[in-house]
Amino acid sequence: MKRKRCEMEEAAKEKKITEIGSAIEELSVLSIAKTTIVTTETEATSNIINLPLKPLLSFCTLIIQVLDKIGPTMAVLRQDINQNIQRLEEMWESDPIMYSNLVEIMRKEANEGSSKKPKSCSRATLWLTRAMDFTLALLQRLVKDMSQNMEQAVEESYNLTIKPWHGWISCAAFKVALKLVPNNNTFINVLAGKDESHQMVQDDIRSLVSLLIPLVSQLHSILVRFFC
């Protein structure tokens, strides 16, 4: 998986694809790969979604690259995402066939009663989902108004999605780091590719949001079924 991340970054450079563009491509692959599965009569009405694990983790890795553009403010969230990706990667590496999709991992831990243990893959999925919630909330704000204050957009997205689950130390650290958020134009410029206008960046973000909304919804459905 680590080698694949480097290959993805190099390929993006060669094709001059932006981080947003790469995320759209990866999420499009994930959208095609996922299938609806029904494994028992009790699950027949829950429409459980089979999310292939490797494309999901590849997408999460690309989201880190997008969040990196916000700067040091995202350091704690970036580290958290990386750790949770690694935890799920380790499970996949233990048996790539059995754990090829997220549902099987979540089901295994639910059956074992280990879902809520601190180092479980289910808890890693919970925090990855919260990170996706934050990313979606922020991108939706940008699509709605590309000229809005970035510090305010980041803070409002954080308060809505992650702050309720952070301890006071993490909240205080985030509050301080907010002062390092770049202004709107700087952020849009670092997201843009060569000769790409702000309108083109906005269109790319809108495309990513349209793909991210159903993914986030599916992740929450899986958590409700196997974790909550």
Automatic annotation (TrEMBL):
It comes from the Eukaryota. The lineage of its organism: Eukaryota, Viridiplantae, Streptophyta, Embryophyta, Tracheophyta. Pfam families: GLTP. InterPro entries: GLTP_sf, Glycolipid_transfer_prot_dom. Residues 52-192 form the Glycolipid transfer protein domain. This is Glycolipid transfer protein domain-containing protein. Gene3D superfamilies: Glycolipid transfer protein.
